[in-house]
Write a structure and sequence with these properties.
By secondary structure, this protein is mainly alpha-helical. The chain has one domain: MFS general substrate transporter like domains (Growth Hormone, Chain: A), CATH 1.20.1250.20. It is built from 17 helices and no strands. It starts with a helix and ends in a 5-residue tail after the last helix.
Length: about 425
């Protein structure tokens, strides 16, 4: 355990509090993952407007994430987790009230998911910088694997069918449940010890200005080649994954003929792959190497997208989505552990935000691309174009991110 965790006197309690907060917020995400697009398609079948939901949710990663990174390195990370989850709870509660009063619209939903995304920029950055403080660096792959597996179980296996069932009962029930779960996450985060950022080794040389700290984080990120190139490979994965994901609800309800409950069940069944990926990530990474995992996620997703766009059987959708979830989860463990192992704590929040600006900034772009392609050429065409984009990413990963380079960065210890 790290010095901070040991000094708290309750190292495992700290990890479990973080785990519980993550689990509750991800259950909220899972419920809303189904309820929000189902609400969207209930009020419009326009692919651009449906895809706009994803644009609104991830737009904060383009405009706020760098500032969230500086905040993470300046303030108590426990407090940030509490406030970020409270913001998300309030946003969903307000939309729930609008739905109850029959005033919910697609544009009001955009506003709610934008605020959820804004809170997420703070919560995710803070969470990723807390973990290295409560587990040894040698255990990061395992700890990240457990958290990501739990996220997959709750966010993708439990949450979607629960959200679909609640939405079928009443739309307001699904959104009110999401709000309550974000509130529980805020309460769980309150049980963490104080997580004030560690100072730089040379305190006198540490930047003190907000803007100066932001630039310092960007500079560190850009000078570490493996972080920079892993970010662009991951951005390509997110670009095409979101292009397809933004219109997946249309593909599964139209081409596959699924009703709302069936849509949630397919997402949940496919999530089994993500659960397995999280639990086995440490073994997979040791077996094939971290660089190979980045290559495989691109190659496997290219095949999955071709299959999804051509098929119409729900079982095929489950298999393709499950395979993608498995390797994607393993890749999440690789990139999270890479950042946590290679970046010093005092700058980790800013470097993480710079990384995620590129990686998650690709999400609203991908959603818009998917919506416009679907509107012009049909939903299935999105998956064919995305397959080509993923194949190109596999080539780049093979050339620029071999196992040797990634392993060396992970062993640097932030030095």
């Amino acid at each position: 355990m790290t010095d901070d965790a040991v000094s708290s006197g309750r190292p495992w309690a700290a990890f479990h509090a973080l785990w519980a907060a993550s689990a509750s917020s991800n259950l909220a995400d899972g419920v809303l993952r189904t309820a929000a697009p189902l609400f969207a398609v209930a009020v419009t079948r326009d692919p651009v407007l449906v895809a706009g939901l994803t644009v609104a949710q991830y737009l904060p990663w383009l405009v706020l994430t760098l500032w969230s990174g500086v905040i993470t390195d300046r303030y108590d990370r426990r407090t940030l987790l509490i406030l970020g989850n409270a913001l998300r709870a309030g946003a969903v509660l307000a939309f729930s009230a609008a739905v109850l009063l029959q005033g919910g619209t697609i544009f009001l939903l955009y506003g709610a998911v934008f605020l959820i995304g804004a809170g997420e920029t703070v919560v995710d950055n803070a969470s990723l910088t807390v973990l290295p403080r409560v587990v040894d660096r040698s255990l990061l792959n395992r700890a990240n694997g457990r958290i990501v597996a739990t996220q997959s179980v709750i966010d993708e296996l439990v949450g979607p069918p629960l959200g679909a069932a609640l939405f079928t009962l009443a739309a307001v029930a699904a959104f009110a449940t999401g709000s309550a779960l974000f509130g529980v996450a805020a309460i769980a985060a309150a049980f963490l010890p104080s997580m004030a950022p560690q100072a730089a080794a040379d305190a006198a040389a540490a930047p003190v200005g907000f803007r100066t700290q932001l630039v310092d984080g960007l500079r560190f990120f850009w000078t570490v080649r493996v972080l920079r190139e892993a970010a662009f490979v991951s951005a390509n994965i997110n670009l095409w994954g979101t292009a397809t994901g933004a219109v997946l609800v249309l593909l599964l309800t139209d081409q596959y003929g699924l009703d709302p409950l069936g849509y949630g069940i397919v997402l949940a069944a496919a999530a089994v792959g993500g659960i397995a990926g999280g639990l086995l990530a440490d073994r997979v990474i040791r077996l094939v190497g971290p660089g190979t995992v980045m290559l495989l996620v691109c190659a496997i997703e290219a095949v999955d997208f071709l299959v999804l766009g051509a098929a119409s059987l729900p079982a095929v959708a489950v298999a393709a989505l499950g395979a993608g979830a498995f390797i994607n989860t393993s890749n999440q463990v690789v990139v999270s552990s890479l950042r946590q192992a290679a970046v010093p704590d005092h700058i980790l929040g800013r470097v993480t935000s710079a990384y995620r600006l590129i990686v998650l900034g690709a999400v609203p772009v991908g959603a818009a691309v998917g919506g416009f392609i679907a509107a012009g050429f049909g939903t299935a065409a999105v998956f064919s174009v995305a397959a080509a984009g993923m194949a190109a990413g596999a080539v780049v990963a093979a050339i620029r991110l071999p196992n040797r380079v990634v392993r060396l960065a992970m062993q640097s210890g932030g030095e």
